[in-house]
Amino acid sequence: MSPIDHYRSLERMYASAPLNKAFYHPTMTVGEGKATIEMALVEHHHHSAGAAHGSVYFKMLDDAAFFAANSLENETFVLTSSFTTYLLRPVVQGTLRSEGRVVNIGKTQFIAESVLYDEKGREVGRGNGVFVKGRTPLAEATGYGPPSP
């Protein structure tokens, strides 16, 4: 599989994840060592004080870093080994964008970081994590592979 086909397969895998239905279908673009995710923030994502819950920040930051790492591994599904999240400012509405990139590659692990922006381009969150090569072949992951006819 070519690198471009791998990136598009990761995008289809992300789109087909059942969890993303609860987040109102965020979209993702993958490139070599990087991934960008966009999602419209809706009231469903709010905590009781009326702003986005930290789980939204975590999901967008972890997903962007995760897929940046998996863009460089075309055989197996990578796993999040650890992830640190920094919540910098509250967000109530609009479109969020997270950008992840790999900053270090080892024999069995990747270190990636990500930044979350509001629709005005202000940084609202940041994260970094360690991702390890798993045992599950990507070919077995839901949505990975060529598009359905």
How is this structure best described in words?
The chain has helices spanning 3-16, 19-22, 54-70, and strands at 27-31, 34-41, 76-87, 94-105, 109-117, 123-137. The mean pLDDT is 94. The chain is built from 3 helices and 6 strands, in the order ααββαββββ. It has 149 residues and is of the alpha+beta class. A hairpin with a 5-residue loop joins β5 and β6 (123-137). It has a single domain (3-139), classed as Roll (Thiol Ester Dehydrase, Chain A), CATH 3.10.129.10. It is globular and about 45 Å long. The longest helix has 17 residues, at 54-70. The protein has a 6-stranded antiparallel β-sheet.
Main pleated-sheet profile: 6 strands, antiparallel
How much of the polypeptide forms β-strand, as a percent range? Answer: 35-45%
CATH architecture, please? Roll
- How many structurally independent domains? 1
* N-to-C order of helices and strands: HHEEHEEEE
- Residue share in helices? 10-25%
Radius of gyration: 15 Å
From the structure provided, what is the oligomeric state, counting identical versus distinct chains? single chain
Overall pLDDT:
94
CATH C-level: Alpha Beta
**SS-based class:** alpha+beta
CATH topology: Thiol Ester Dehydrase, Chain A
Structure annotation, total helices: 3
Domain Thioesterase: 50-124
GO molecular function: acyl-CoA hydrolase activity
InterPro entries: HotDog_dom_sf, PAAI_dom, Thioestr_dom
Keywords: Hydrolase
